[in-house]
Target: guanylate kinase
Amino acid sequence: MTEEGAPPPRPVVICGPSGVGEYYSYLSAKVSCLGRLTELFCAGRRGKGTLIELLQKHFAEAHPSEASKFGFSVSHTTRKPRDGEQHGVHYNFTTVDDIKKEISEGKFVEYAEVHGNYYGTSVESVESVLSKGKICLLDIDIQGAQNVKKSSLDAYYIFISPPSMEELERRLRGRGTEKEESILKRLKNAKSEMDYGTEDNFDKVLVNNDLQQTLEDLVELFSKWFPSLLAESNGVENGNLMPPVVDPLSYPKNDEGLRALLSAIDEDCPLEGYVQTELNYKAANVKIPAGKTLDIPLPPVEHNGSKIEWSVTLVDEYNESLDLDFGLVVVVEGNEVECRKKGRIVAPANVEKEGNDDATSETDVGDDADGDQQVVSAKGKFTVANSAPVTVILKLDNSYSWLKPKFVSYEFTIMPPVDSNMIKRSERAKSVLPSIIMGQQELEDAKNIQLSRAKALGRMEVEMEGKRSDLSNQIDDGKKEVGEMKRRIEEAQDEAKRKAEAIKSALDAARKEDESIDDCTKSIIALEEECARLKRQWEELKVERAVREEERLKFEQAAANAKGERENLQEEISAKRGEEQGKLKHLEGLESERKLLENNLIDLTAEKKAREDEGDGYAGEIKFLNLMMEKVKLRFVDIKSKK
Model:
């Protein structure tokens, strides 16, 4: 259970494609749940389950005496149980009617319908894990995670991707359990999931190219998100912590502040005078020539109370029943003191055949670093009393073997003593470590917020650049259109001038015709006077006069028509000029808007730079806190070694 008043840890959602190639229908459930989820997605099933198991094993080994810090929410399904499946363990088995009813009541975070069967995660199953103070793990697919994002759950999202689609296809085919049609469907669906699996949609994207490296990245990520895990894996047990002796985050984040913090932790036990460093010396296949002896001195042991553990193994690669004389002495003030009397040892492979009849022979079984049993020829341990400094010497004797050289491997571990001052200093150092870790997390969060803001400003910058480019294109197109309109207006003006000239020519011709008619009239008058004599001529001229009169009327009508056309052209020219003025005003507005956008873009660029600079500042503080934590960890000791 969590401490009273303390919020539960944020849950973790393990997410990957479930039944790739199937089609799901989802409803978004609005739920209320304490804590925050962390979702882990994986494109393709291989690797994700292994990573989850290794992740839990890592933190379980860091503090084996405590219960697991993780818990799985048990999903609901309407399908029938398979052999070996238990209700409430593998699934919560229910009916279609019941799950539909609870879905309608908003009791599910997410659900899917696959081939007539429902699968889903209930709010109750998540809150059940959170109420126990555990980090809740949800194993769902990407579509389900998208529904979780629509709910009120505050989750971390991780996407674990294979190195490539080719590698994913190789893994799917390597199973040997899928038909070709099924593999193609899975690959098609996985492709869309991998396209979705970017850092825009997830808090972290991990490429599972190397299982061990991916696990290390995952452990580092969980340690950052859940500092309590990191504190416990570094030997800080929350239940046994003393209150912080000082607030490490209150000190200046510089060398002077670090020295002041370390001085407050050390008090009267400075690191330089009180240090516990386990020393380990080992060698493999050390040759002792035939008929020779070999003494191997180790570096001096400087502190009284130091504990020394040792082991020696005679190498017998071909099971030749080899043996060797071996002894161990300690040089105290120039005098050799036996720690192990010289006696015969045998190769481990021959222990059963040789037996333990020889009192000088001994063979022991120990544990290696991986927990596997390791057989050695001899081993032991002793404590340096009030005689330091001393020197330990291995004495290897092969003088009785004239033909066969021997080879040995040895390992010595020297643990300096721990006094009460070092234990208190270690407790003080451990008491401030959680505050340092929390400070790191806060700075990381602040840095990520600033970087997110910088990314958002960058996207705005790109959008405004695009808009400015569009406006510039519009302005250029408008200028081209205005230029085309000016060209057309000039052509219309030239056409109007040509028509005006034609009208003028027609009027001049009509005027000349009028003058000609006047001359004819005078001639008629003159002929009338000579009427008697020129009557026929007079009649002809009269007819001619009528014809000319008709032509004059035609010229006047043509002149009137040409005048109307000129007036129409003038009106059209005036309209074109008005339209041109409107276009020019519109272009002036666009030009003003472009200038405004350019000013906004400059401001956004400055804001983005400020955010990035602020993020860099946080990065510097994080680097300093990392240095602070390394310095503090140097003050840790293994309290058990005092026994």
